[in-house]
From TrEMBL:
Keywords from the named record: Oxidoreductase
Designated name of the protein: Sorbitol-6-phosphate 2-dehydrogenase
Keyword Oxidoreductase: yes
GO MF annotation, one: oxidoreductase activity
Pfam families: adh_short_C2 (PF13561)
CDD domains with a match to the protein in the record: SDR_c
Any single biological process term in GO: bile acid metabolic process
Length: 247
């Protein structure tokens, strides 16, 4: 019998993160839902339990290294292992470069880039220590490879996530730990609410094959597929989950 996996998923209170929690749980994995939104995170746990799955919530601000370390420790204390770390929490503040609001800039980098760094470090160390051949998956974006005006800090962070993924994959591969990025295009979640108001959404829809926003469930399905041992050759890759947005 194969060991039941443990997946830690940040940003699990909403959107892509929540759907990924539900997906992994529906496949029999135990899920550690992490987010700074306590009510939303607890709701995800309730949804999992209602469907017969196993999950806990750990309130976490991913921009704080000590909280991400505590999250990983909590996962191992509760379930004894960590097989999947999905560094997914993110924010989408508008940060045009010529009028850069430094506070927003640092906040965006703190969550979207440093949050991923901390997840790689603490989950990677723990997997190595426990001898687990796990997988670390980072949420990038089409905006990690394509520019759009007004989102300077977001591009900086997601571009960094892509190179951090490749760099960490090289360093962790001797331990059998894979590091992969998924890069969604335009996904129907609260993070793009600002775009809905600005009318930019119709431009985005026109770019995606099929003409409709990607469903968060579709991204969750791709994350799950990438996490499987059968995907062992997918390592250091930026997997585009964008309906051709960046093609
Ligand atoms: P969302 O807004 O529905 O979910 C983001 C979650 O991250 C929320 O639950 C929020 O509470 C949490 N979060 C924010 N800051 C946090 C922090 N400091 N610590 C812990 N949790 C925090 O948005 P969505 O779309 O599900 O975003 C998930 C990821 O997907 C993000 O990294 C985002 O940049 C990325 N993405 C989203 C796209 C889209 O079109 N929706 C496209 C490409 C990438």
């Amino acid at each position: 019998m194969s060991t039941q996996r443990v997946a830690v998923i940040t940003g699990g209170a909403s959107g892509i993160g929540r759907e990924t929690c539900l997906k992994f749980a529906s496949k029999g994995d135990r899920v550690v839902v992490a987010d700074f939104n306590e009510a939303g995170g607890q709701e995800t746990v309730d949804l999992i339990k209602k469907a017969g799955g196993e999950a806990i919530f750990v309130q976490t601000d991913v921009s704080k290294p000590e909280q991400v370390e505590a999250l990983v420790n909590q996962a191992v204390e509760t379930y004894g292992r960590i097989d999947v770390m999905f560094n997914n929490a993110g924010i989408g503040l508008q940060t045009p470069v010529m009028d850069l609001d430094l506070e927003k800039y640092h906040k965006t980098i703190g969550v979207n880039q440093h949050g991923v760094t901390y997840g790689i470090i603490y989950a990677g160390r723990k997997m190595k220590e426990l001898g687990i051949k796990g997988v670390i998956i980072n949420t990038s974006s089409v905006f990690g490879v394509l520019a759009s005006p007004g989102t300077f800090a977001y591009h900086a962070a997601k571009g960094a996530v892509n190179m951090m993924t490749k760099s960490a994959a090289l360093e962790l591969s001797p331990y059998g730990i894979r590091v992969v990025a998924v890069a969604p295009g335009a996904v129907d979640t609260p993070i793009i609410a600002g775009y809905k108001a600005s009318g930019m959404l119709s431009t985005m829809k026109a770019k995606v094959m099929g003409g409709e926003l990607t469903k968060p469930e579709s991204v969750a399905n791709s994350v799950y597929l990438v996490s499987l041992d059968e995907a062992d050759a997918i390592n250091g890759s930026i997997v585009m989950v964008d309906q051709g947005f960046a093609s």
